[in-house]
Design goal:
Blueprint: E1 11-16, E2 23-27, H1 30-44, E3 52-57
Antiparallel strand pairs: 1-2, 1-3
Length: 64
């Protein structure tokens, strides 16, 4: 798995699972997005096939 971060501010971390509301959190920088992503995954206990984790610029949410 390849992970990349960019240095621009305001990212959103989104965890998606079929049948559930998306869990989205806005973070100020790439370092915080990595910590937030790990905590979101760890909080699930069990991952399911089809679970998705997306990190993108906050300004891009809803524009794609």
């Amino acid at each position: 798995m390849v992970g990349r971060t960019r240095s621009e501010a305001e990212l959103v971390v989104i965890f998606s699972r079929d049948g559930e509301r998306d869990d989205a959190r806005i973070v100020p920088n790439p370092e915080r997005s990595a910590v937030t992503a790990v905590l979101m995954i760890a909080g699930r206990g069990t991952l399911h096939v089809g679970d998705q984790l997306l990190v993108q610029h906050y300004a891009e949410v809803g524009s794609g």
